[in-house]
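Record type: monomer structure entry
Structure origin: computed from sequence
Chain ID: A
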Amino acid sequence: TSFRDYITCPYRFYLKHVLRLRRADDADQELDAAMFGNLVHDTLDQFGKSPFASSQDPEEIATYLTDQLQQLAQRQYGNRSTVAVEIQVQQAQARLQAFAVKQAHRTAQGWEIRFTEQGVGLEDQVKLGLHAEMNLIGRIDRIDYHHESGQWAIWDYKTSEKAKQPLSVHWHKEHGWQDLQLPLYVPIARKLGVTGMPSLGYIVLPKQVQDVDFCVAEFTPDMIDSALQTADQIATQVANGQFWPERLEAVDYDDFPRICQVHVQHVQAVQPERRQRRYQGYVTRRVDANVVQQARQRLDNPLVRTNIQLPPLLIRASAGTGKTYQLSNRLLQIVLSGQEVDGILATTFTRKAAGEIMHRMLQRLAQACVDAKKQMELASGLPDVDASPDACLAALRRVASSIHRLQIGTLDSFFAQLARTFSLDMGLPASWESIDPAEEPRVQSQAITEMLESHDRNTLLSIMHMLTKGESSRRISDDVRTAVGNGYALFRETKEADWRQLAVPTAPELKEIQNALETIASYRINDRQIDPQMDKLCQWAVQSDWEQVIQHGVMAAIRKNPPTYYRKQLEANLVAAIECLADAAKTSLLASCRGQTEATFQTLEAYDRAYNTLVRRQRRLAFADVTHLLAQWPSRTGSKQPGATTDRTSIDQLEYRLDSKIQHLLLDEFQDTSPAQWQILQPLAASLGGVPRSEQSFFCVGDTKQAIYGWRGGVAQIFEAVKQSVSGLLETKLFESRRNSLPVTQAVNQVFQNLSMHGNFAGCESTAQRWSVEFPEHTTVHTDTSGYVQLQNLPEIEDSELGSQEQRLELLGFAADQIAQLTSISKASVGVLFRTNDDVARMMGLLRNRNISASQDGGNPLNDSAAVELILSLVHLADHPGDKICEFHVRNSPLQQILAAEVQGDSVELSRWFRRRVSEDGLGRTIQWVSGQLASHLSWWDQQRLVQLVRSAQTFGDRGRRLREFESLVEQTRIALPTEAQVKVMTIHRSKGLEFDAVFLPALDHSLSKRAPYLIARQTDPCLPPDGVLRYMNSSVQAILPDSWQQAFAMDKASGITEALCLLYVAMTRARQALYMFTIASGRNARQDFSSLLHSTLASGNPSVNQPSAMLFQNGQADWYLSR
């Protein structure tokens, strides 16, 4: 098996097999793949040596295997193993019971188990190598012999989750040999007396027990010879010490990511040139003395309120049309009309956006005090209030002196304030804290562990069996984590009855099914197409593979009038038999789906109890917890939510507790608001509706075309709920851009008004057509501003030997070259936008390798620095002194010389020294000291990342937590490296609200459809809780569902297309002047991705769409930057 490791990566082979480095970690709560496999292997080994190996009775074999498995598990893991391990043992038992049936059948065929776990050692002198310089050692799981034929069969047990075909595992038609295990069994078997050419294969025991089988690898004699020649070459390379690979890439199941620097970004070591500061050389302008005097008089006198009309207002603002300007206008109207600052509540979704709103309001007031032109602009936009310089100065002073009472922030922060104010009323623990979002996965894992340990074991086993649709999965915690991650938010919105909404019809009687099978099996018309298909149908039905049955082509045929199949009419009795199987399949599949759904609910219910117990014990709540508790408070307790009605008593209670009156509510980015959030805000909003007046107001702004946060609960249709809740609401729309140049605006219109020209929206063409019809014609005020749009295909990768990661880098490098070219001749700001953080990280490395100063919004985990990885190895070693991988990493680095002066001895002494230092000085100071010692060895990039690591350690604090928790936190938390850069790289989601002179979209190969969801929610109104929940079913069998559920599946699919279109709209409209888009060459048919969509709308009829590097569309001036 070691040959596979060498083929994958010679250097990792060296670390694993020559140095014998092994990891040590106690974080696992269940058996990993190797431990699970060893447990099954050991059981089967004992079986092969027992008298039961010759049994033809499946029950007898299964009983022995079960007893042996339980004994081995008890011996290895004790009487009180974790629940997860117990369930894994039960899952292994299910696989072995399925194996018992196959084994009994094989014995009945005349095969006997001749050897188990037999092999060769050094003493057997099985030579390998071009010069026979190495010895082959190894064990064979099992060798069978057939007495009648004299045939031998060599088997290897495989317990991976999915059944693997041995030939595809070993041989790849492009890359050649990937594994040599089975061919190398041949020379070993000869030493054991095996003659002739044995058959080779896997005995696969996957989680789907119906797939347990004996799988033969169809190796030809030439392939076996080729494999042995390859083994000789590798053996010689090992003997010669050839371990350094041509390229070091990421691999699956990597034990050495830190040593191999898999996560490290290889960037320039030189500190980027710092640009001139924005205000350097700026001359401070003083306010005129008369203005100051008049402002003082205003402040000395009682506050005069201007009676203005502020109607409840809803603005649908397209991208770049001045949304923040309109919101700041409303804020300034309120402030300049003399309203109290602490009566304002303005909310948005990010702290960055909240800061922008605050900045824009203060900036406009300050500019109006010193700049006559700015003051006139402000006054013209606010004709109904006094916007004179002295009025603006007085208002600025009032705002600045009360800024601590001005509530401009995120919804999460406002909800947290509400929950703290009403903690006792809501039954929350006193003095609770918010959970850092970066720590939420750790809290979730802890809750899952407590759930598994506290739940009844037999019940839990039954739930897990249904949760995985009867599969014997070994990843217990992962299965629960998947259910929690995809379903907990939905669980909180629904009732148990909502998870039991799928009706399951009564199945045909067993006798009816048997008669149907006999009818179909006996049906013969001597047709070479129909007869084999009938045999397949019977085979699948006998195996209870009902999904294959329901997908069989004859099922559509029997619905025709008359029923015809391959142009031949089917007899009535055959049609009735097939209908019987269809009914049986439908019942079985629906019952399985309902069982999965109910098991998911029970899993989430158990997790909910464990999670709530945990967070209350720790006195900590996540932001999602706060929102849920506030939204559910009235229905859960029967009491009134603060402001739950518009009656004055309820509103007064809220204002009394908050120590301020919420008289002006302003909601930003409203399309991303979730129903739960609106449920909390709705009473406040409703109380501020009605006749326009100055002392109270409601303002809401958003754009359904920019609804890109559906995955976190945002519902764009919530705009309609506002219109129903707030009386007297006025609605206005903004379509004239104040951001985009004319070529960019024209490109946006051309794409989104012509979506019908693209022929592949995954069956959701009507959704795209409706999006296109409702898309308004965009205009721009910048008709005279130079601009440019281009659409170009990426080049073809010529080197077929490159791995997938390197191919991706090659493609992104093409765009990086154009970015480098633009930044070398222009100072224009550049935004480079991607769908995924992985592509963001790749582009950052490419740009820095081209000596381009670039910053990353959102960031990567700090382990993208080699220095951080090194210190994390030291931290891990302190927690696990037996980890030889981390010890090797530390010992073969600059840290070795530094630490040698501090501590003498082995890894245990090093671990003791580090932990003592943390106890005395704290984690932050300890890591700061180590970082300081390393600084002289590091590049500017690594030094900056270490500074951030020190801050993370200081924030982590000294709460008595394990060092591994800090290590895990660093690996999961994304932190940007703030630099003043011309180029900013980020995801499209993070670019929301930003704008750049030029925007590059280098990776438009992502699908328009979202991944299949875990759960489907059935809703009559998107703004109301679902009235039904169902586990996802494959599209091929959705036709058996009732109409209401088929509609729910269709709506979910359509929502994915809508969100993809919103994402593309947001990406394209970030560009002020220039937009550069890079696509993958199209084939004959339209693909279901952004590239193909842009080909259909911008390059329709262009014959070059299938040619790499072709320029497909250009509009505007390519040298747009010269006129800046």
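Annotation 1: The chain has five domains: 2-239, 312-352+409-427+627-734, 435-618, 757-858+983-1010+1068-1123, 861-975.
Annotation 2: The mean pLDDT is 90.
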